Amino acid sequence: MYSHPIHDFSYRNEELYCEGIKVSAIAKKVGTPVYIYSYQTLVDHFRKIKEAFRAVNPIICFAMKANSNLAILKALANEGAGFDIVSGGELKKARLVGADMKKIAFASVGKTDGEIADAIKAGILLFNVESKPELENINRIAGKMKKTVQVALRVNPDIDAPTHDKINTGSLKKKFGIDLKTARKIFLEQKIYKNLHINGVHIHIGSQITKAEPFLTAIKKALAFVDGLEKNGIKVDYFDIGGGLGIVYNDETPQTAREFADKVLPLLKGRTFRLLMEPGRFIVGNAGIFITRKLYLKDNGVKKFMIVDAGMNDLVRPSMYGAYHEIIPVKPSGIASVMCDVVGPICESGDVFAHDRRVMNVKDGDFLALLSAGAYGYVMSSNYNVRPRAAEVMVKGRQWAVVQERENFKDLIKGASIPEFISH
Ligand code: LLP
To answer: Would you say the CB of residue 63 lies under 6 angstroms from ligand 1?
Structure first.
């Protein structure tokens, strides 16, 4: 029986509920595939971090890349969240939901001139800068705009955190951050950047890291770096420890926010800087599920395949990272399980949600839920195979609403044209 530790999704009377609403009712009304978010789980997770770190009153910048649905962002902004953004589009979304610009950190290894200018104009808190050429460029643009902007250097602590290689960012084999030697040099010669106030240190070592040790090693390294700067009379006002806290997908036993805080806070004793954090997955990952419909069960004599109406274009994590998402029936009663691959309709062998997994063999046309789909789900979806992106729904108590309509064919051909010279 289903025992996944996400509080606001649970079975009652042989029905999967999201808070006070039957998941099947939403799926019938809105169709599938559909992402369903629990407002309560979302804000609870934000509050868990806020509470755990209350002693230092951090700026918690939700990493919008994990889920940039406007309703999610609004709910978090209402809770006092800031945002970690990585593009001009994310900046615009932050403005749309009325986010406090003084709680916005802008990361990304490749910020364009337009994005930099827009962010300066918006008055964001700081830029997390990832290279010297980028620093020079921000200085130049700020100069043209007659502004002084705050900068944190994203330092690369050269740490190999145990997670999937594609989401491991803290080593010098990766494109992220500035090596400590160069970063120190920049701080020491910061007077040459007339329009920058370089007063922050940022680290982010990777994502879905379930243990404290890699974070602690990286934080200690970054703090030693800060000490070195302070010895040279340089004051650090912001210390950003990034995101990366792991969650439960399967049998992980990740640290809680409290356990994490209990280990991190002692390291920060006596520091005067403001702490920033950039959690994404921890806040939204288990606040969302993804509903698909079983189409067929196919048996080729060697293996069985459960074919569903969602594909890797809708939720790419299993094919991209071999990620595990638990799959459960929306109506669990009176069904047997079957050993199979759960696959989508896309013309690629990698279009698989589960390999050789025992799942409940619901009737053709019935719904299945993929759990822990709130982070890096919808945001990474695409139109591959000319498939419209799924709908998104938010539930709060007994209320629910479509917060992102399903795309239609018109959306898919928007801006497309057939030129005269090939049109006959
Ligand atoms: N800060 C920075 C600078 C980041 O690059 C990221 C994530 C975060 C914060 C938030 O990390 P989180 O707390 O969510 O772990 N698509 C992958 C994850 C990519 C993470 C990218 N950066 C996945 O589905 O697992």
So the answer is: yes
Tell me the sheet residues that pair with 359.
338
Confirm whether 61 is a catalytic residue. Answer: no
- Give the ligand 1 atom nearest the CA of 202: 3
> How many Å apart are CA 283 and CA 375, to the nearest integer?
8
**Strands 238-240 and 196-202, bridge-based pairing:** parallel
Nearest to 189, CA basis, from 142, 221, 153 = 153
On whether the pTM is more than 0.85, the answer is yes
> What is the residue whose two structure tokens read 């419209």?
388
Kindly name the residue from 18, 61, 340, 347 that is annotated as catalytic. Answer: 347
CA distance linking residue 96 with residue 195, whole number of Å? 28
Judge whether 9-38+285-412 and 107-279 match in fold. no
Atom of ligand 1 nearest to the CA of 278: 9
Superfamily of domain 9-38+285-412: Lyase, Ornithine Decarboxylase; Chain A, domain 1 (2.40.37.10)
Q: Which stretches within 177-307 are classed as H helix?
A: 180-188, 213-231, 257-264, 281-284
At 31-66, the pLDDT tens digits run 999 999 999 999 999 999 999 999 999 999 999 999
* CATH code of domain 107-279: 3.20.20.10
Q: What is the pLDDT of residues 165-206, one digit of tens each?
A: 776 777 788 888 899 999 999 999 999 999 999 999 999 999
